[in-house]
Write a structure and sequence with these properties.
Layout (H helix, E strand, L loop, with lengths): L1 H15 L8 H8 L4 H32 L25
Helix pairs in contact: 1-3
Length: 93
């Protein structure tokens, strides 16, 4: 995963380093970024992917647990409000 994330990072930086981005905020960012930026971003991407895979693999368990929850005394959380109960704040400023 790290290798692929690093390759993609290099592709994006290469694109932004092109002449069409000269004197743009991206050009300034490229010149001012920290030398360790790539490693930090790659690690964040790997962490995000790992968390996403965990969520995806455990999704059936999570949804089953949610469906088993009871609405205890909070029935109002699970119902749409009647139109007479809807509070609007338009014009109250």
């Amino acid at each position: 995963m790290r290798t692929e994330a690093g390759k993609r990072y290099d592709q994006v930086v290469g694109c932004w380093a092109g002449g069409e981005f000269t004197d743009s905020p991206l050009d300034e960012w490229l010149k001012e970024r920290h030398p360790d930026h790539k490693e930090v971003i790659v690690e964040q991407v790997v962490d995000d992917l790992t968390n996403y895979l965990y969520l995806t693999l455990n999704w059936p368990i999570i949804t089953r647990a949610i469906l088993r929850l009871r609405a205890q005394g909070n029935r109002w959380l699970y119902e749409e409000p009647a139109s007479s109960q809807v509070v609007t704040t338009a014009g109250s400023m």
